[in-house]
Amino acid sequence: MSTNNDFEFKLLARDKNTNARLGQLITSHGKLDTPVFMPVGTKATVKAMTPEDLAQLGAGIILSNAYHLYLRPGHELIRDLGGLHKFMNWPGAILTDSGGYQLFSLSDFCKITEEGVTFQSHIDGGTKHLITPEVAIQIQQALGADIIMPLDECLSYPAEYERALTSMQLTIRWAQRCRDAHNQGGSALFGIVQGGIYKDLREQCALKLVKLDFAGYAVGGLSVGEPKPQMYDIIAHTLDFLPQQKPRYAMGLGSPEDLFECVSRGVDMFDCVMPTRHARNGVLFTSSGSLIIKHAKHTDDAKPIDAECGCYTCRHYSRAYLRHLYVSGEILAARLHTIHNLYFYLDLMRQIRHYIARSTFLELWNNFKSQYKHRR
Amino acid sequence: MSTNNDFEFKLLARDKNTNARLGQLITSHGKLDTPVFMPVGTKATVKAMTPEDLAQLGAGIILSNAYHLYLRPGHELIRDLGGLHKFMNWPGAILTDSGGYQLFSLSDFCKITEEGVTFQSHIDGGTKHLITPEVAIQIQQALGADIIMPLDECLSYPAEYERALTSMQLTIRWAQRCRDAHNQGGSALFGIVQGGIYKDLREQCALKLVKLDFAGYAVGGLSVGEPKPQMYDIIAHTLDFLPQQKPRYAMGLGSPEDLFECVSRGVDMFDCVMPTRHARNGVLFTSSGSLIIKHAKHTDDAKPIDAECGCYTCRHYSRAYLRHLYVSGEILAARLHTIHNLYFYLDLMRQIRHYIARSTFLELWNNFKSQYKHRR
Question: pTM of the predicted model, to two decimals?
Answer without folding.
Answer: 0.97
